[in-house]
Amino acid sequence: MTDAPLFTRTDAALGTFALRPVDPSPSSQLRSSRGGPIADAALLHGWVTHPKAVFWLMQDCDLPDVEKEFARIAADPHHDAFLGLHNGTPAFLMERYDPAHRELVGIHTAEPGDVGMHFLTAPTATPVHGFTRAVLTTVMDMLFDDPATRRVVVEPDTRNTAVHTLNKAVGFEILRTVSLPSKDAYLSTCTRDQYLAARGEN
């Protein structure tokens, strides 16, 4: 299991956020070890099939489907998945992809430094005010921590009004509506300068 975080951010109000690669090991391999952690796929299965994750488009997946999906991502040179931790506890998921090779091929003309992104917060019965904004800020900070990243590209479902509000708050600009195989989406981008301006740092 890969426990060491690749990126850590401290939020003044909510504490420590961190990201590490998703462990794609099948759940059955980790269940057999005494006291071993639950495989990431077993945890993520509960998240992506929850009714609140309807826009993640994995509602009908069983555990083997989820294991197969994250194994596929782990083997893909143009796609990565990261488990997000809040004060050490798994709390969100982030995927990073190269839009020149995945998701938006033929729809978006990717420029050097473009990075695609998806994020999902874990379902909870006790939501914390400002938490999802803090998660998105952590994700954006991680992506722009790489000096090669010039612009973040997203394609949220047009019906996902909550994420549109969050995206606008951190600097995303909707370019146009696009038709993807599974949804109509708002193709949106956020440059490094737009992000810093939204944070009041530019």
How are the elements arranged and paired?
Elements: E1 7-11, E2 15-21, H1 27-31, H2 40-48, H3 63-75, E3 79-86, E4 89-97, E5 114-121, H4 131-145, E6 151-154, H5 161-169, E7 173-180, E8 183-191, H6 192-198
Parallel strand pairs: 5-6
Antiparallel strand pairs: 1-2, 2-3, 3-4, 4-5, 6-8, 7-8
Helix pairs in contact: 2-3
Name its key features.
single chain; 202 residues; alpha+beta; 8-stranded mixed beta sheet; 6 helices; 29% helix; globular
Q: How much strand? A: 25-35%
Our count of helices gives: 6
The backbone outline, from C-alpha atoms, is: globular
Question: Main sheet, how many strands, which sense, barrel?
Answer: 8 strands, mixed
The separation of the N and C termini measures 39 Å
The residue ranges in which pLDDT falls below 50 over 5 or more consecutive positions are 30-37
3D architecture notes:
The model is unreliable at 30-37 (pLDDT under 50). The longest helix is centred in the C-terminal third of the chain and has 15 residues, at 131-145. This protein has helices spanning 27-31, 40-48, 63-75, 131-145, 161-169, 192-198, and strands at 7-11, 15-21, 79-86, 89-97, 114-121, 151-154, 173-180, 183-191. The protein has an 8-stranded mixed β-sheet with strand order 1-2-3-4-5-6-8-7, sandwiched between helices. With 202 residues, the chain is of the alpha+beta class.
